[in-house]
Amino acid sequence: MANSQCCAIFRRFFLLSLTVIMVDSHLPDWRPFFKSLSFSASYLLTRNQSSADGRDTHVPLTEFQLSQLLKLYKVPPNATVETTYMASNVSTDRKTCCTEANKYVFEDIWQKFPRVQETWRSVWENVTFLLAHLRNFKCHVTFTGDIDTSFAFDHDHLALFPFFTMINLSELVVDLDVEPHLDSREVLQTLTMKVMYPGSPDTQIASLVGFIISRHRCGDDFHLVLDEENEELHWLSVVLFDKFGKVKPHIICEGFRSGTRCWGTELSAGKIIYVQDVTVYQDRRQGIGSFVLQKLFESENVQNEDIVISWPVSSDVSKDIVVAFFRKNGFRRIGRTHFLGYSPNPNHPSRRLLPENDIESLEDRFLGRNPPLSPELQACGRDAIDEECRKKYPLHCAIIDQNTPEIAKVIQSFYDKDPASIHVPERRGFLPVFAAARAPNIHALNKLIEIGVAEDLKNFDNIEGVTPLEGVLSFMKLSRELSELRTGMWAGNSEMDMKVINILKTAMNLPTDSYVQFKFGCTCAQCSDGWLSPRMRFALRVQAAFYIKALSMDLGRFKGRARLDASDAMTGCGTMNYLPPGLQRPMLKSSYTGFTTVFKVIYKILRNDIQVPTLRDIKHDAALERDISFFKSEGGRVEHVLDALTAIAKKKSRLGDGTFYKTFGNDEDFLRLPEESEESGGAKMDKKDKNEEEISLK
């Protein structure tokens, strides 16, 4: 800060000398020369008040300012505190007064440090360091103040003098700015807060940076939108939520990974306000950071149904300090993830959970008992780490490397030498049976189950907090999410993963799923071909019926053999947009009739509860319709119609404007149909899009 700026802000100063006298003679061995040390340290405090005649007069420190200073130094509650105020006139020779003040403050300690200090700042750093280590000792504290040092910033050689300003939070100026995101205006808004001294807009003392996420506008692109922004938001999206922005079941349902269970389905409602950074640049430890968060909570941007989330990490201070800061301000762990959440609702269960009763994240919990790799080993690279792993955990490595029937003999040899070897976890807590399931290695898994690992199948004491079965299911979900995120497609669960799941369920005496149901994640047991749910069939069928009627009405607009402009917005109720540009030229009535007939073919298939509208079946039935040949002769394809039907149905679903549910939400026929879970609902829509994937491949 420039001297002129300091003079403008701090017009009047009081030199406060703090004397700490040790009453406990025991000090750490690394500072034996500090035994029974009496010394003085100093702070510059803003403390001025204008009198009636316009002149500045100094007044005593208030009780609030004194309490803040004691809090800053972490003075024990049982310490004796005495305050003495000594007025001192500033001589006209300010340089002389400065020298005297310096001598008074630092004379005792200057000689006691092990080496000569060159600047006041280096002395101050040592004093501050010592004070930080005195907080656990009983001490006698004496404050002596009211020495006028307004001359301090008149001299360049005093620029290094440390100063501390008592902040009146109610006087701070807050500038909160919310702007639409440049690339995702409908979903994301950038949130920026600046905190400044009154009358000094260029002097920023704290800031907040974050995002407002309107997930209801994402459809099924929640992961995609946040992934494109930054890595932190990517992890927020995939760790806590599915691609629709709905909370993942294991976060809130009964189980180890749900943690304190103070969060529920409300995580799926409202906006997400993500706090990416809170920084206090100066005058710390006076509640400014908490003040910033409270101003955010009080703003119109945070409503009762919203959720404020943050990932407490910092490059400047320890993780424990950052976590404690957020917990002090009402944030609580979401499940056992890294993320902390705050509910604006004062009656929310998280608001009744005391900070000390909150829990650690899975990673912190596990690494607290199992130290990570040494920095020396990490510096040697991946090959060295793998080699160390092979030495410490040879059975795990063999299971991963040898995915052949021969692995059964290897496992047997380990067991013969030491029966306990098949139950030994590796450094992250994963047991051999977990490694076999995750690999996936069917041969190893069957052998381990044959020998006897029944208890290990229930074990979740690892860095992910999951059993082998939960671990494979989680991996399958992650694989699907990544596939959809990177390619926009998902080909279903792999054959090997499905076999592993059924082996594990059989060993645990749990019911297994049929191949058809499991391939695409059916949970209602009524999905045709494992992917087309009864409600999705209903939605597609009524959509097809609507277009059959609407398109048939357009046929009256054709006059003789005249062509109709297919690019006209009034034509086809939006279905024409899904035809290639070459087909959107003026169409003959015969071609348009063929286009309409394809909708009729799909409708008939959808009315048959055991038939699925695959391309093969649609093409087979369409070949029997004469009108469709005219549509095909113009370059039309069945895929174009199927693309239009599925895409428009999706837009009218809850992933779009929700008009389908506004129309049929209370329909008795619709309500009688089984409603798939939130988790499997995506599977139905995705599999519906599988036909569109086939279209793109063709």
Automatic annotation (TrEMBL):
Keywords of the record: Signal
Spans annotated as Disordered: 672-698
Keyword Signal attached: yes
InterPro entries: Acyl_CoA_acyltransferase (IPR016181)
Superkingdom as given in the UniProt entry: Eukaryota
Biased composition (Basic and acidic residues): 684-698
Keyword Signal attributed: yes
Region forming the signal peptide: 1-25
Protein name: N-acetyltransferase domain-containing protein
Organism: Guyanagaster necrorhizus
